[in-house]
């Protein structure tokens, strides 16, 4: 298994290109199943999760073709991938595939909408929390689907097609909003989703669906209306820039000091997180080409944060922010409200010398003067990258094991950081 070795102490200076968003790409790929015509996605990041989902979709009959040259010559430009779902050959998503990636459960929406049936394995446990699927089931039931959960599978049928409905999510869910919105595009009548997720990735999916012929309004607000149509058609859509990758690199610069242009990044996608960074003492500037992040010799101020659905502080940046706060002047209280078990990085950060006390969903981080490199290991994607950030500011070598977590969601992380002066290398086992 590969590992990454970071030797701390260098500031970051230069330009980092921001890739297309993983969490927009995945639902967009799944949306290709809604039409017999090709869906072409541009700015697709080269990530393990994208490759896994391509294979999962292929099991349902979705062919795909990567446009243009090979990876090496494409650089970091983002790939263009054509998805062809002219025939859905299988409406079952088996356990072996769904258990590899939770988001593949989301195929239930397009399968049910287009084929009138779906049998999808429950995704099972996950390191960051229990992550149930009740909101998916209830919203699809509201649209007339008959759903049974048995023997680890969700079986859904809508022989006469789905029907428009009014549904209020009792809790904000990104995935359930994606799925209900996709399903409603082909339902008879109008669906109104209330308390919907407002994440930019939901808006990106809605824009693509509208390009495919769907009638959607309100995406990006908590009430989304979808007027069902008979069929959707092909479209070409560019994936929006990854706000979590943007925030991650911004925090890395905050941690090491330096001056970096995050090329292609859009400040509007992560207002709250950037406001918090400014409060820590970082300079943030939106330029035409992207966001400039800089911190000179001044110390890092401690700031409290609470994770929340968009537009609040994203849970996907909580671990990275905690890494930053380990070196702040003072005490920061970090509260995680989205997932019940998303503090797995705490013990690993402690191995580097961080002072963090966890009490339920609160972490109290007292900044220390010095972190010291050590071997560390993480159990999820964002936790892994938080250890890289800490390693950039630690004395000596930090070896991050289980790099496959990083490869799921960060495109060429070590290449992007080393281009800005970080001492970071991958060791292949
Ligand atoms: C998406 O997960 C993201 N994944 C996650 O990013 C992100 O952390 C999360 O949204 C929150 O922003 C993708 O987009 C692929 P949710 P999702 O449904 O949709 C509960 C990363 O690192 N819930 O919004 O699965 C759930 O347990 C990943 O890139 C129910 O109770 O998250 C959680 O507490 C990790 N019942 C809360 O809602 C349900 O039926 C929010 O989860 C569904 C969810």
Describe, in plain words, how this protein is organized in 3D.
- Helix 9 packs parallel to helix 11 (318-325) and helix 9 (243-256) runs parallel beside helix 13 (381-392).
- The chain has 15 helices and 24 strands.
- It has two domains: 3-18 and 241-427, Enolpyruvate transferase domain (UDP-n-acetylglucosamine1-carboxyvinyl-transferase, Chain, Alpha-beta prism), CATH 3.65.10; 22-234, UDP-n-acetylglucosamine1-carboxyvinyl-transferase, Chain (Alpha-beta prism), CATH 3.65.10.
- The termini are close together.
- A hairpin with a 2-residue loop joins strand 8 (146-150) and strand 9.
- The protein is an alpha/beta fold and 429 residues long.
- The model has no long low-confidence stretch (mean pLDDT 95).
- The longest helix is centred in the middle third of the chain and has 14 residues, at 243-256.
- The strands form six sheets. The protein has a four-stranded mixed sheet. The protein has a four-stranded mixed sheet with strand order 2-15-17-16, with helices on one face.
- Residues 23, 26, 102-103, 129, 131-136, 171, 173-176, 315-316, 338-339, 381-382, 409 line the site of ligand EPZ.
Please give a quick description of this structure.
The chain has 15 helices and 24 strands.
Strand content: 25-35%
Number of helices: 15
Q: According to CATH, what is the topology of the largest domain?
A: UDP-n-acetylglucosamine1-carboxyvinyl-transferase, Chain
How many domains is the backbone divided into? 2
User: What radius of gyration results from the CA coordinates?
Assistant: 21 Å
Content-based structural category: alpha/beta
**Any guess at the CATH architecture of the largest domain?**
Alpha-beta prism
* Share of residues in helices: 25-40%
Distance between the termini: 5 Å
Biggest sheet: strand arrangement? 22-23-1-24
Q: Which molecules other than protein and nucleic acid are bound?
A: ligand EPZ
Q: Quick one: biggest sheet?
A: 4 strands, mixed
Number of strands: 24
């Amino acid at each position: 298994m590969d590992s990454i070795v970071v030797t701390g102490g260098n500031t970051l200076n230069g330009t980092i290109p921001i890739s297309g968003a993983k969490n927009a790409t995945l639902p967009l790929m799944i949306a290709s199943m809604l039409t017999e015509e090709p869906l072409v996605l541009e700015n697709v990041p080269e990530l393990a999760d994208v490759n896994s989902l391509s294979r999962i979709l292929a099991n349902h009959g979705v062919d795909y073709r990567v446009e243009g040259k090979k990876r090496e010559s494409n650089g970091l430009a983002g790939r263009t991938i054509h998805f062809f779902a002219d025939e859905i050959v299988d409406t079952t998503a088996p356990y072996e595939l769904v258990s590899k990636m939770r988001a593949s459960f989301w195929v239930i929406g397009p399968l049910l909408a287009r084929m009138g049936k779906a049998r999808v394995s429950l995704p099972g446990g996950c390191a960051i929390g229990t992550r149930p699927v009740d909101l998916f089931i209830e919203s699809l039931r509201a649209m007339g689907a008959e759903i049974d959960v048995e023997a680890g599978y969700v079986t859904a049928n809508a022989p006469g097609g789905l029907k428009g409905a009014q549904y209020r999510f009792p809790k904000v869910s990104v995935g359930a909003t994606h799925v209900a919105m996709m399903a409603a595009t082909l339902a008879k009548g109008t669906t109104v989703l209330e308390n919907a997720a407002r994440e930019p990735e939901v808006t990106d999916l809605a824009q693509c669906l509208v390009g495919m012929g769907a009638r959607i309004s309100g995406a990006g607000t908590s009430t989304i209306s979808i007027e069902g149509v008979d069929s959707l058609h092909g479209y070409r859509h560019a994936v929006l820039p990854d706000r979590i990758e943007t925030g991650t690199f911004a925090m890395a610069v905050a941690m090491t000091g330096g001056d970096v242009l995050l090329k292609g990044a859009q400040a509007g996608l992560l207002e709250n997180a950037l406001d918090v960074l400014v409060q820590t003492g970082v300079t943030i500037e939106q330029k035409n080409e992207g966001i400039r992040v800089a911190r000179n010799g001044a110390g890092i101020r401690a700031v409290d944060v609470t994770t929340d659905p968009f537009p609040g502080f994203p849970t996907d940046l909580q671990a990275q922010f905690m890494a930053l706060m380990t070196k702040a002047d003072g005490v920061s209280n970090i509260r995680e409200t989205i997932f019940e078990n998303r503090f797995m990085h705490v013990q690993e950060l402690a191995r580097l010398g961080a002072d963090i006390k966890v009490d339920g969903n609160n972490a109290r981080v007292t900044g220390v003067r010095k972190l010291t490199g050590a071997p560390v290991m993480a159990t999820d994607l964002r936790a892994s990258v938080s250890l890289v950030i800490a390693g950039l500011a630690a004395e000596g070598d930090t070896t991050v094991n289980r790099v496959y977590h990083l490869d799921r969601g960060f495109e060429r992380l070590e290449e992007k950081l080393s281009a800005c002066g970080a001492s970071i290398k991958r060791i292949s086992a």
